[in-house]
TrEMBL record:
Protein name as catalogued: Pectate lyase
MF-aspect GO terms: pectate lyase activity
Higher taxonomy: Bacteria, Bacillati, Actinomycetota, Actinomycetes, Micromonosporales
Signal peptide, first to last residue: 1-33
Domain of life: Bacteria
Cellular component aspect of the GO annotation: extracellular region
Amino acid sequence: MRRPVALRLQAALATAAVGIAIGVTLPTPQASAAVGTATGYATQNGGTTGGAGGQTVRATTGTAIHAALCGRASSSTPITIEVTGTINHGNTSKVSGSSCNTADGVIELKQISNVTIIGVGSAVFDQLGIHIRDSSNIIIQNVTVRNVKKSGSPTSNGGDAIGMESTVRNVWVDHVTLEASGGESEGYDGLFDMKDNTQYVTLSYSILRNSGRGGLVGSSESDLSNGFITYHHNLYENIDSRTPLLRGGTAHIYNNHYVSLHESGINSRAGAKAKVENNYFRNSKDVLGTFYTNERGYWQVSGNVFDNVTWSSAGSENYPAGPNPTSNTTVSIPYSYRLDGASCVPDVVRQTAGANTGLRVVPYTHLRAHETR
């Protein structure tokens, strides 16, 4: 991180009182599923339904989450895990079983499928990351993941709040809050990272803040097997860069609110293509372009608002799209979506994004969709 992050986390979320013992996993009589249905690229490639149709259990520790995964009949048996309370290193241990492959000190979703993790009340993963590897059809909703470190103590998930790698397919992350307390020099890495063949992912109605790095798609200029990612109705606030960093692949980025991006924002590199429409950028620098490389990327832009955005001069390894961004590619979107006018975006995102907002979406019927695809 090239400069200190000015803001720090707000007061920690209070742990909700629950009437079950810590570490106990309780079957519930009725099957439940994620609230709402997947959107964006997570609807493609067969769709993303998580644990719909399977058993629902409740967990108050990381160990109990692992036990729920390991207690299934198979690694693909659908399950919804309702999480409440604070999940941390002290209550997260490896659990063994034929239907799981877990580890200490991280929520490990490895070599599994058909899982929903949804927060009930306040669900906080404190200094503990969520790692998705060799897995498919995963939903994560209504949780906060904070202060995950790659150096210092304790460490988890390579410093990523949510990280995906190694043949991951169909993940919907919705209404989550991902936050750090600084950048790499303080021990943190990315908030939402995808690499090594991760595809068909949607991040919606979420908050990413107070970090050096928002997230990446592709770990290097040679890791070009990732893509088909949708980002919509998210708040990126007080981030240095990577909102996101795209290396190859295709991304659809619409109706997001970006505030205080200190160094760069959407960084399309190495042949990546981004459709960037009806977003609201405020008090930020170099919010779109190719940065820190000569391996250029591409973008299609329309309907965005640039409010007090500054742009650096073009030069070697620095190719900002502004000050008057124009399209240099076209991107075809295969799914239908509602596109709100950019002027509405700050208000809509303020009222809907993040954990513990009631999983609200666009709050007012009078906020008419600007266009429908």
